[in-house]
Amino acid sequence: MAQIPGCSALLLVIVLLGPFPAFTQRESRHDKFLRQHVDFPKTNSELDARRYCNLMMQKRGMTTTFCKPSNTFIHASHSDVDAICSDGGTYYSENYYDSNRPVALTACRIVGGSSQNPPCSYRGRVSSQYVRVACLNGEPVHFKTTL
Q: A single GO BP annotation from the record (predicted)?
């Protein structure tokens, strides 16, 4: 059996492990916030609120092992949502900021109790309201409430 020269073996290891860090990287808090709470432009606006919630909760990974009891989707651009933590929002307290203007929302709530396992069933409510978010390093990381 032929030996692989040291340089070639090292190159082989680098090639094989090259994509590995991508699999181990965790989703940032801001990226998780965007995945869970921002849908712009709104996905398939032809759907009624119930069907929209059932689709989006599954599509965004909030029904894989258990049913997330509630979630609110903001129908504004990433930059408009991010701006709540700066000139598009007003400081409230601690790390919370309130939006300076109402935003289009779809609020999803589980049907039948909060401890359900998949398949999950949601009801939805569409509105336009002010929102409060928690900010970290100038970016939203947690949806607190509507106002």
A: defense response to Gram-positive bacterium
- CATH of residue 105's domain is 3.10.130.10
What sign for the dihedral angle of Cα 87, 131, 103, 70?
Answer: positive
Which residues are catalytically annotated? 37, 142
Q: What share of the chain is helix, strand, coil (3-state, %, to 5)?
A: 30, 30, 40
30-62: per-residue pLDDT in tens? 999 999 999 999 998 788 999 999 999 999 999
| Segment (H or E) for 104 | strand 103-110
- Residue 17 is assigned to a structural domain of this protein: no
pTM for the model stands at 0.81
Over residues 95-130, the pLDDT tens digits come to: 999 999 999 999 999 998 766 788 999 999 999 999
